[in-house]
Amino acid sequence: MIQIKKFTFNPVQENTYVLYDETGECIIVDAGCFFDYEKKELDDFISDKQLTPVKLVNTHCHFDHILGITHCRTKYKIPFYAHPEDAFLVERIVEHGDRFGVPVEPVDAADHPLNEGDQIAFGNSVLEVIHVPGHAPGHLVFYHEKQQFMLAGDVLFYGSIGRTDLPKGNFEQLVFNIKSKLFVLPEETVVYSGHGPETSIGFEKRSNPFLMD
Q1: What DSSP element (H or E) covers 72?
Q2: C-beta neighbour count of 165 within 10 angstroms
Q3: Which run of H or E residues covers position 152?
Q4: What is the pTM of this model?
Q5: Keywords of this protein's UniProt record, alphabetized (predicted)?
Q6: Above pLDDT 90, what percent of the chain?
Q7: Which residues contact 27 (CB under 8 A, 6 or more apart)?
Q8: How far apart are CA 41 and CA 46, in angstroms?
Q9: Which distant-in-sequence residues (6+ apart) come within 8 Å of 76 by Cβ?
Q10: What is the CATH T-level fold of the domain 3-207, as seen in this structure?
Q11: Torsion angle, CA of 46/49/55/61, rounded to 10 degrees?
Q12: Which of 8, 185, 19 is nearest to 203 (CA)?
């Protein structure tokens, strides 16, 4: 069974997740640790739980979601996976960080692509990959059918959706993809978002003001 640990990191209050199962293998999703004490918090959790990180996977590559990639790559010697359409965001991390007043260092390109229909395997566990562009062109959602949860990144929030005024954002595309790809999933599905608290598909279908018909 997959266990999920959430951390809230960096000046943008981004949610980083560590997923692990009974084997002790884990993946780090949207590594956003920026300050040294945040890196230590992540490392201490992994050490205390005696976990073995095997992959860095990203829902998307806006700067606040990749601030910890270099640290995790260096410390754990693990590869970085992201959708190819977000490669330009990795390339421009310094520029985008400057826009938000966050001084950041360059990040090397992803080691491996992730696309819709791929699977993310670790230990005895597998997540399905769903492409949900609109907030970012390469935005992905990671879904586990049996345990009924998803890591939604910045697509869907409690009572809101991802902003679409960033490079290559598209409001109509985002709304269409949420409704056609995520709202068809069971209403009990828990949504772990890239910022803020958890929600559920059913709650957002009934009450999200951006997604009401």
Answers
A1: helix 69-76
A2: 6
A3: strand 149-153
A4: 0.97
A5: Hydrolase, Metal-binding, Zinc
A6: 99
A7: 18, 19, 20, 53, 54, 55, 56, 57, 120, 122
A8: 9
A9: 53
A10: Metallo-beta-lactamase; Chain A (3.60.15)
A11: -50
A12: 185
pLDDT score recorded for residue 113: 98
The residue written with tokens 């951390």 in the block is: 7
Q: 207-210: long-range contacts at Cβ-Cβ below 8 A with a sequence spacing of 24 or more? A: 207/159, 208/156, 208/159, 208/160, 208/161, 209/159, 210/160, 210/161, 210/175
Which residue has 């772990």 as its token pair?
192
Compute the distance between CA of residue 98 and CA of residue 92 in angstroms, rounded to an integer. Answer: 10
For residues 157 and 195, give the distance between their C-alpha atoms in angstroms, rounded to a whole number: 7
Q: Are 178 and 172 in contact (CB under 8 A)?
A: no
pLDDT tens for residues 105-130?
Answer: 999 999 999 999 999 999 999 999 99
Q: 103 in helix, strand or coil?
A: coil
Distance of CA 168 to the CA centre of its chain: 18
**Confidence at residue 35, expressed as pLDDT on a 0 to 100 scale:** 97
**What is the token pair recorded at 130?**
């769903």
Rounded to whole angstroms, the Cα distance separating 167 from 116 reads 21
Structural contact between residues 136 and 60, judged by C-beta atoms closer than 8 angstroms: yes
- Sequence-distant (6+) residues with CB within 8 A of 4 are 17, 18, 19, 149, 192
For the chain, give every domain's residue range. 3-207
Contact 45, 38 (CB under 8 A): no
**Which element (helix H / strand E) includes 127?**
strand 125-131
Enumerate residues 6+ apart whose C-beta is below 8 A from 69: 31, 56, 58, 80, 107
